[in-house]
Amino acid sequence: MGGTTKVLQLNDEAIAEAAKLVLAGEPVAVPTETVYGLAADATNAEAVARIYAAKGRPSFNPLIVHVPDLAAAQRIGRFDSQALALGESHWPGPLTLVVPLRQEARIASIVTAGLSTIALRVPAHPAMQALLKACGRPLAAPSANASGQISPTRASHVLASLAGRIALVIDGGATERGIESTIVAATGDRLRLLRRGPIEIEGATEAVTAEIEAPGQLASHYAPKKPLRLDAVDTEEGEYLIGYGPVRGDVSLSEGGDAVEAAAKLFDLLHQADAAAEPRIAVAPIPGNGIAAAIRDRLKRAAAPRS
User: Fold this and answer.
1) Which of 79, 85, 163, 184 is deepest in the core (most CB within 10 A)?
2) CB-CB neighbours of 32 under 10 Å
3) What is the pLDDT of residue 210?
4) Mean pLDDT throughout 147-171?
5) How far apart are the C-alpha atoms of 115 and 267, rounded to whole Å?
6) What is the CATH topology of the domain spanning 6-206?
7) Would you call the peptide bond into 92 cis, given omega within 30 degrees of 0 as the criterion?
């Protein structure tokens, strides 16, 4: 968007307006107990793509999904006994748990960056809790700042980098913790610490992983198993072509050349191409800056030779 950004003090009317925007597919900035988050409906792929568009995020990483309580988290992810114990001990609070995703959960694939795991958190802040209850949807919410800038702990910090890019900031004052949540993966026999944060988790070993599982990690990403050719304007023999704009292909990220629509469909179409009969994948050129550049970055990583 390119309009003005409204700032509302935290109250019931502000939450109602924020919920209306979220349910219409727009991201809004809201305080949590860690930092301000840029929240969007995690079941709506285009809404989540607008988070990336607003942040100017250079690459698609998995996003943390906020839910109101442990029961809601269990409807989205599969919790073993260790994950359950951590959730019961530390939620609501600044702990994010990475667990296997339930396929029936209807979480948009852009949220998990195409992975089979999901990062879940039950926030303690009354603003995010109120918004979750008003929306009745899980909310994907990375930090509410332009990519690469310092995480925001006040509404003024959000405005410094996102003014004009989002419709609404809810001002709930300074955040309590000021650093992002601790992230722990509970996807195997032992707990793995993916990101340090306000909570120390006893028995979690520092993760050494080649795959990105959660925000704050820089590593390789979900990629198709098949070879991937970029900037393809037509199909070569044995290729499944993902089109964009004037390049039609077997499927299209966006026939109208809309980068937000393309980002929303990217991981679903990569999975679809990986499951197709053709042994190779080709993707049309994705021109432009901002979110288009983020799509190109992800495709470049996906096309990189396997070590």
Assistant:
1) 184
2) 28
3) 44
4) 94
5) 9
6) DHBP synthase (3.90.870)
7) yes
